[in-house]
Amino acid sequence: MKAMIFAAGLGTRFKPWTDSHPKALAVVNSKSLLQRNVEYLQKYGIMDVIVNVHHFADQIITAVEENNGWGSNIIISDEREEVLETGGGLLKAKSLLYSEEPFITLNADILTNLSISKLLLFHQQQNALISLGITNRQASRNFLFDDNHRLCGWENTVTKEQKVVIENKVLHPMGYSCVAIFNPDIFDLIPQQGKFSLTETYLSLASQHLIAGYDHSGDKFIDVGKPESVSIAEEMFM
């Protein structure tokens, strides 16, 4: 299985660090977020990793080269000309990711101990196009699932904006863990082009293709999105 780590973002919530560094190189207990996620993938035998870069791209490339990919085969997907967000970044990396096997994506600023083996088994059992790691937690933005764990919509709890693509009387809001497994035929189905979020892709495909949510509530999980998150992450991940 191949993996892609999204590390191209501007990290505006993580200032002042991101005024002179990429967020992916922020340090938690002496290891960068990027290194931690590379090593997380290694625990499941995933050694082929694509990392997209934009903001202070040279620093990430140097870190990868100086550390020999921390033992993994890391290929850079270069977005220095324009940051493409998660969906555009995935599409740009198509030639690097494509194989006959499913592949996994994760955000560089997310730390979790979600079992990739269990997520993959769930994905195979559900025969899903995409399987999303989700938890039952308070979040400003949630995906909405039916009783059978099928993605039906999205909501912003702050603005009250909601987009439902499959009508259902009962929908369960769940926080997205930013870890997902895709079947390789996703590249023939993505309708968007250019710069776009994977959230757009999920919602545009959900009514015609099974996008399933794997509930891993109770696992360790933290979005290291702000500087104050680092101390919490350091307590959770030694």
Helix content estimate: 10-25%
**End-to-end CA span:** 26 Å
Structural class: alpha/beta
The CATH superfamily label of the largest domain reads Spore Coat Polysaccharide Biosynthesis Protein SpsA, Chain A
Q: Globular, elongated, flat, extended or rod-shaped: what is the shape?
A: globular
How many discrete domains?
Answer: 2
- Spans of 5+ residues with little confidence (pLDDT < 50)? none
Put simply, the count of helices is 7
Provide the CATH top-level class of the largest domain.
Answer: Alpha Beta
Q: Per CATH, what is the topology of the largest domain?
A: Spore Coat Polysaccharide Biosynthesis Protein SpsA, Chain A
Order of helices and strands: EEEHEHEHHEEHEEEEEHEEH
The count of strands amounts to: 14
Instruction: Give Rg in angstroms.
Output: 17 Å
The largest sheet, given as strand count, sense and whether it forms a barrel, is: 10 strands, mixed
Compute the average pLDDT.
Answer: 97
